[in-house]
Amino acid sequence: MKNNELKKILFGGATANSQYEGGYQVGGKGMDTQDCRPYMKRTSNATTSTRLLTQKNIDFAKTEMEQSKFPFRTASKGYEFWEEDIELLKELGLHVYRLSISWARLYPQGDEEVPNQEGIAYYDRIIKKLHDAGIKIFLTMNHFCYPLNLIEKYGGWTNRKLIDFYLRYAKTVFENWGEYVDFYLPFNEINAGYFSPYNGIGLIREEDTPYDQSKIFQSLHHQFVASAKVIELGHKMVRGQFGCMAACFCYYPYSCKPEDNLKYVKDEETYQWFFLDVLSRGVYPSYMNRFFLENNIEFEVSAEDKELLKKHTADFVSFSYYQSCVVSTEEREMTAGNLVVTIKNPHLKATDWGWQIDPIGLRITLNKVYDRYQKPVFISENGLGFKDVLTSDEKVHDQYRINYLQTHFEQIEEALKDGVDLLGYIMWGIIDIVSAGSCEMEKRYGVIYVDADNEGNGTYKRIKKDSYTWYQEFLKLHK
Ligand code: BGP
Question: Is 304 buried (19+), middle (13-18) or exposed (0-12) by CB count in 10 A?
Answer without folding.
Answer: exposed
